[in-house]
Amino acid sequence: MVIKVENLVKVYGPIRAVDGLSFEVRQGEVFGMLGPNGAGKTTTVEIIEGLRKPDSGKVTVLGMDSARASNAIKQRIGAQLQTPALMPSLTVEELLDVFSAFYTRTLPVNELLDMLSLTESRKVLVKNLSGGQLQRLSVAMALINDPEIAFLDEPTTGLDPQVRRGMWQVIEDMKAKGKTIFLTTHYMEEAERLCDRIAIVDHGKIIALDTPRGLINSNFHEKAIQFELEPRPSEAELLKFPGAISVAVDLNEVVIYTDNVPVTMSAVLKYAEDHNLTSMLQDLHVRQASLEDVFLKLTGRKIRE
Ligand SMILES: Nc1ncnc2c1ncn2[C@@H]1O[C@H](COP(=O)(O)OP(=O)(O)OP(=O)(O)O)[C@@H](O)[C@H]1O
Predict the structure, then answer these.
(1) DNA repair as a keyword (predicted)?
(2) CA-43 nearest atom, ligand 1
């Protein structure tokens, strides 16, 4: 166990940002924390990193009490912060050199540049970096001390798909080296692919914690039939379709969770025909339930609203 959080509470005025969280993170796993905006993810991560103080509760990191040993802990963890922007007139390489000096144990700067595909930008001033490059630099800084636990806060937000896959590779390589990764992300497919276990957080509380497959299997035995139709049937109408167990709608997009795909599919086609809407029926497909469906079911919200 490399992180143990017990009954953590953080209150801001009337807001219980973290409302009694307890969980453990195991050594060598990629642990994901997912939640809608304002769920309390950043507050939780920053308390574990020793950057904020909880109102109550206890955090143990690498066997040390975070309230007492925060300096010793900081040497052995890596936090992704928005610090590069604070030193706009340094080059990428200079910035990494400066920050290396804070740690007793460090990775060679060349290796970091290579890992994060920043070698070609090593002489570029921080203020001239693109958003994606800055993002990669902030991850490089989180890894500078070859940490046992790396906290990555939405490391791929705003990156194009190719660079995002590069970042996934970085995370997978770290895991292969036995490192622990604490990841927050808004991207469900990223969480599903990278995380060994995921905690879904809402209103400062954990509402589910399991492997991605476990979260899906315990919430959905059924498959999803998805389509767009304008105008679409109401939720009440959709629930009357044979085989339908539950439904989720968003504008013209419909998802029917069904335990009998052929029967429900026929009903969808018949509905469109009966209402002269066949030409309005788009993107009809059947899929397995995904983490996105679990999130919607548990929180009542899409992850990005
Ligand atoms: N320093 C602060 N002062 C007052 N309220 C705060 C402070 N920091 C966070 N909050 C509030 O606490 C709640 C949790 O915020 P937090 O940033 O931890 O959520 P989050 O899950 O990280 O959200 P996001 O996905 O938007 O980053 C929010 O309602 C937020 O407005």
Answers:
(1) no
(2) 18
